[in-house]
Amino acid sequence: MKHSKLIQEVIAVILVLLATIGTAKAIFKYEDNLTKKRNVIEVKPTNNFGWNPEVIRVKKGELVKIRVNNTTAVSHGFGIAGLGVEAKPIYPGHQELFEFTPTKTGEFSFNCTVVCDKNNHLGMTGKIIVE
Q: Based on the domain organization, do 73 and 27 belong to the same domain?
């Protein structure tokens, strides 16, 4: 009888351990997925016709997600010609998500691609550094 009870207790402990390990594994997988979703670089045009941030650093061969959130009162655009990121307009109060994987290292300009101001538009550039 004691032997039977001991076996039941060992089985119960094993089941608890397996459930705990499974739960921990699921939590880590969930956190990993959240991190991937969160790995978005937030970029905003500024009211003085610049970008925040002005410089972005990324790694060659890794997926890059840039969300441009236009909180200004005029339309802007965003594009990175040297990396094949096609320009898109971003209207006031809207945002666009750009995803790409850089295949080469170097420094590349990102620009406003919509004429947003006749005097300041051409200066609305930033830099992306691919390491």
A: no
> pLDDT digit string (tens) for 69-126?
999 999 999 999 899 998 889 999 999 999 999 999 999 999 999 988 888 888 899 9
Q: Rounded to whole angstroms, how far apart are CA atoms 10 and 91? A: 64
- Alpha carbons within 13 angstroms on the beta-carbon side of residue 3 total 0
> How many CA atoms does the CB half-sphere of 111 hold within 13 Å?
16
HSE at residue 95, side-chain half, CA atoms within 13 A, is 12
Helix/strand/coil for 43: strand
pTM: 0.69
Q: What is the DSSP secondary structure assignment for residue 85, as one 8-state letter?
A: E
The DSSP code for 48 is: T
Which domain, by its residues, includes 126? 41-130
Regarding whether 112 and 48 lie in a shared domain, the answer is: yes
Tokens 């699921």 sit at which residue?
26
Same structural domain, 21 and 64: no
Retrieve residue 110's tokens.
């990102």
